[in-house]
Amino acid sequence: MASNKGLLLCFLFELSLWASMGVSDGDTDVGVPPCVRKLLPCLDYLGSQEKPPAACCVPLGSALDEEIECLCKLFFDDHLLQSLNISQSQIMGFPPRCGLKAPDVTKCKFSSGRLLAVPLKDLLLLLDS
After folding, report:
1. pLDDT in tens, 22-48
2. Domain ranges of the chain
3. Which end of the chain is less enclosed by CB atoms within 10 A, N or C?
4. Bifunctional inhibitor/plant lipid transfer protein/seed storage helical domain: from which residue to which, for each copy (predicted)?
5. Does pLDDT of 90 surpass 60?
């Protein structure tokens, strides 16, 4: 019985996450935040040293300016990063390849306005990359 309650809690948690991302009935990329969908043309360039095209860099610049909260959610969502086969260090190193400044993830906030807690060792790794 306890395992059923745990399973139900996990399901409700996943359902609430899915609902909070604003997925509409016609979406095919269930659970993928809108800012990530716009950046899908960049995926092929994350693992290479090839210069990303404007089809990637323009939406990236727009997302960095207008959708930083969405990008913060991506940055700290290990499950989503793993499903996209990308790492935090790849994300941090990518904007400069488009001539853009990397976001300051230390200022990422939850919807409540609280600063997102980032372990010091993770910050040091990010700053070194």
Report:
1. 444 444 455 677 888 888 889 889 888
2. 31-128
3. N
4. 35-108
5. yes
